[in-house]
Amino acid sequence: MAFLVHQPETPPDPQDLLIYDGECRLCVAAKEGLERHGEHKRVRFIAYNSAEAASILGEGYQPGRPEVAFLVESNGGIQRGLDAFLPLLPGLPWGRIILKLWRIRFLRPLGYAAYRFIANNRYRWFGAVRQD
Is this structure's pTM higher than 0.70? Predict the structure, then answer.
């Protein structure tokens, strides 16, 4: 079919790091879901608001709430936003189906738009993690 795009499904390396917004309820819930479904063995999770995340991201780090999640690959590459989560999908329920749908070219812009929309509204809809 002409509208399919081949994209290799490379699982994350055990040394990959997912830097997530540790103050966002939705982000923390997503991290916990990934941990529950075994992806924690393939990636290490780091809260964005940590000194380690600031050190790893270097000049790309800006204090405050991050706009997106980051997947720092063992080869030095950094994926942002929705692209940070795509390698983690095979370990989730429905993840492989979502990846198959992702290969349909016209669905990609919708996926990116949905990620941006949710990311921009996550505190309004889901709130912040309570800091004790």
Answer: yes
